[in-house]
UniProtKB/TrEMBL annotation:
A Pfam family the protein falls into: Aldedh
Species: Neurospora tetraspora
Matching InterPro entries: Ald_DH/histidinol_DH, Ald_DH_C, Ald_DH_CS_GLU, Ald_DH_N, Aldehyde_DH_dom, LUC3-like
Source organism superkingdom: Eukaryota
The keyword Protein biosynthesis belongs to this UniProt entry's keyword annotation: no
Protein name: aldehyde dehydrogenase (NAD(+))
Leader sequence residues: none
GO molecular function, one term: aldehyde dehydrogenase (NAD+) activity
Entry EC number(s): 1.2.1.3
Annotated keywords: Oxidoreductase
The Aldehyde dehydrogenase domain, residue ranges: 27-478
Catalytic activity: an aldehyde + NAD(+) + H2O = a carboxylate + NADH + 2 H(+)
Length: 488
């Protein structure tokens, strides 16, 4: 076993990783640190021939990786997780430059390492459907071949590793395509992976917006696991249809939290507030609509305002314990600004915030004052759309469970949802009627490597993680062994 010093890498120059070699490209691009607006070190802009090279290396690697015993594949994933840990501060500092205060970046890298280790524990067993004198019938799961993970900007390490782990554990060769807004950490992670996995098993390609479509169109790629916005997810699915690639789509969310009147406010308010403003609203399973029982609405809202006042926002150079980042990029900044502009236009009532901080000149980066909108109309944009920024509606419900379930389900999205109550039976009764892939009671965003994650309705299709997630990286194959009798 190699020592952790074998896993030290240089964090200054950035390459594609193809067949375990570091490859430059004729042109490069730079992402921007959203807290300082300074450019990050340049990264490759892949060409079509880079895509072909990576796909043929993955194809060549696949048969022997598929035939490698799963315990060996798992051990390499575990070693990879340890190797990331050996470079923990370097990865966290680089991730901070991509848009988070150091404390949040460290949280993400730590969470991702644990998730990867959890994934390595999973096993997809053959299932015996029938074992009789006449026949043995089994269902088995075989890897698909070359798979691609297309990753968004908001949790670039966790979401990328969250695809890599299950893909390679199941026996696939995996290509990681990071977001053009956050390519640096991903490239370094795969550079490290190249020291551990056989050539062609784990690769990375960075590029411009044409890279994703090249991958979804490529005839030798068998699966795209996509995480990103719902409109892009629809394009990915349409593009994959031409080659009948398997697709997993992890898309946008508009998570509801239903708060009952019997909660312990001192305990629940800070949790709900954190669940709503985590990563400044840029998390698919951030709480994006809160429905509070009218009996406690005023107290709850006042508590939320106090909780939000304690939240420290900061960037990569923060030294004061900030946990909340700016909005990650200029495109998202414009989208969120547009939502903030509706406050005046629509006459929404901010309980706190309401301003675009960057415009007030207080901070240079893409900062907003965290904002809570007090009881806006149910059909308003802030309730119906995913802002993906630090602006949150809080609404009232009147104690009628049917009505609050209707309100929570009144959206095209269906990613996560939570119910908060000290009556667990009641909470479960309400939760089970919600149209969302992940239901939580007295918690939210509680994600685990052994729990499947995926959306209802336009929040996605298929799952990452858990045994169901592993099955998504496989063909389902039946095997019937005839012992006697039979139809031919
Ligand atoms: P996005 O859809 O703009 O981009 C996601 C990725 O897709 C990027 O890597 C991008 O380069 C790539 N891409 C863009 N166009 C493509 C195309 N035509 N073909 C193939 N790839 C293409 O998403 P984003 O703005 O980076 O991320 C924010 C969104 O992601 C939010 O809606 C959020 O809710 C969602 N999200 C969902 C989950 C989940 O697990 N369900 C997790 C995180 C984020």
């Amino acid at each position: 076993m190699a020592s952790t010093t074998d896993y030290k890498i240089d964090f200054t120059t950035f390459y594609n990783v193809i067949n375990n070699e570091l490859k430059s490209t004729p042109t490069t691009r730079t992402a921007i640190n959203p807290s300082t607006l300074a450019p990050l070190p340049p990264v490759p802009v892949s060409t079509k021939s880079d895509v072909d090279a990576a796909v043929s290396a993955a194809k060549a690697a696949f048969p022997s990786w598929r035939d490698t015993p799963v315990d060996e594949r798992s051990a390499l994933i575990d070693t990879f997780a340890d190797a990331i840990r050996a470079n923990f501060m370097e990865f966290a500092s680089l991730l901070a430059l991509e848009g988070k205060p150091p404390m949040a970046a460290q949280f993400e890298v730590d969470f991702a390492i644990k998730h990867l280790k959890g994934t390595a524990q999973l096993r997809l067993e053959e299932e015996v459907v029938e074992d009789t004198e006449e026949k043995l019938v089994k269902v088995r799961y075989t890897p698909l071949g070359v798979g691609v993970g297309i990753v968004p900007f908001n949790y670039p390490v966790f979401l990328g590793l969250g695809k890599l782990g299950p893909a390679v554990l199941a026996g696939n060769a995996f290509i990681w395509k990071p977001s053009p807004y956050t390519p640096n950490t991903a490239l370094k992670l795969v550079e490290l992976a190249a020291k551990i996995f056989p050539p062609g098993v784990v690769q990375a390609l960075s590029g411009e917006e044409d890279l994703g479509p090249w991958l979804t169109a490529h005839p030798d790629i068998r699966k795209i696991s996509f995480t990103g916005s719902t409109p892009t997810g629809k394009k990915v699915m349409a593009a994959c249809a031409s080659t009948l690639k398997r697709v997993t789509l992890e898309l946008g969310g508009n998570d509801a939290a239903i708060v009952c009147e019997d909660v312990d406010l001192a305990q629940v308010v800070p949790k709900v507030a954190l669940g709503a403003f985590n990563n400044a609203g840029q998390l698919c399973v951030d709480i994006k609509r809160i429905f509070v029982h009218e009996k406690i609405y005023d107290q709850f809202l006042a508590g939320m305002v106090e909780a939000v006042k304690t939240f420290k926002f900061g960037g990569s150079d923060d030294t004061e314990g900030a946990f909340f980042p700016p909005v990650q990029n200029a495109m998202q900044f414009e989208k969120v600004k547009e939502m903030f502009a509706q406050i005046k236009k629509e006459g929404w009532k901010p309980a706190i915030g309401g301003e675009v901080e960057a415009e007030a000149g207080e901070k240079k980066g893409y900062y907003f004052k965290p904002t809570i909108i007090d009881n806006p109309p149910e059909e308003s944009r802030i309730v119906q759309e995913e802002p993906f920024g630090p602006i949150l509606p809080v609404l009232k419900w009147n104690g009628d469970e049917d009505e609050v379930v209707r309100m929570a389900n009144n959206t095209d999205m269906g990613l996560g949802a939570s119910v908060w109550s000290s009556d667990l039976e009641r909470a479960e009764r309400i939760a089970k009627r919600l149209e969302a892939g992940s239901l939580w009671i007295n918690t939210h965003q509680d994600l685990h490597a052994n729990v499947p994650f995926g959306g209802f309705k336009q929040s996605g299709m298929g799952h990452d993680w858990g045994i169901i997630g592993l099955k998504g990286w496989c063909n389902t194959q039946s095997l019937l062994l005839r012992r006697s009798g039979g139809i031919i």
